[in-house]
Amino acid sequence: MTPSPSPRTLEKLAAARRVAVLTGAGISAESGVPTFRGADGLWRRYRAEDLATPQAFARDPRLVWEWYDWRRQLIAKVEPNAGHLALARLEARCPDFSLITQNVDGLHPKAGSRRLVELHGNIWRLRCTAEQRTLVDARVPLPELPPRCPTCQALARPDVVWFGEALPQAVLEAAFEAAREAEVFLVVGTAAVVQPAASLPLTAKRAGAYVIEVNLEPTPISSSVDESLFAPAGEVLPLLIP
Ligand code: APR
User: What is the pTM of this model?
Assistant: First the structure.
């Protein structure tokens, strides 16, 4: 039985002009994209330090790319779910809206979201390791692994943020400004354990936002939010955003 949002939550969300949302892997789970820390999460089956760090890429770029190419092929087969679509509807009716996502799967833009802050990059973009130029290359599978920059033939890497890497400053500033300005802050499908994303909900709360969490289970921020709705995002978000 999907929990019903409280009348106060529905009022707050309907009246808000400035809304920010933080999403994590959980919002893509119902589309069929594995999460990282859940029961069948990717970090239960693979070692992050072997696949999602600059050291791993320097050590074995082909292995790292085989993993990303496998994820790209999996994601290419799935569609946004009702949760992604509900957030696109919310954006359409909010004058001041930011969708801050930790996800690199590209399902939010595919669902129609545009006011995006992609904290951890995008799996469909490659970045030249020599000149940092980025390009979208959505071919699945990629014709050669590891791919090379078409301009200078240097190794190309996934344009995602790896463990141990800093997020681009402009992206961070946009995310924290959106959190500080929000009247309502919605946190969907994140374990809230990876920084700096995990600080955004508390930043919003301290700045006076009404914070709503959607997750299958309690997280470290559950005790600080105004309402937690423990149910699948694909079921709850359409109730929050009819
Ligand atoms: N609806 C709502 N929440 C869900 C659903 C669902 N259908 N399925 C899973 N969840 C929740 C889980 O309970 C968990 O709290 O989504 C969260 C997923 O947590 P993680 O797998 O840790 O993903 P995330 O929080 O996005 O990880 C953050 O860590 O590995 C890095 O860079 C990677 O962006 C990722 C970051």
Answer: 0.98
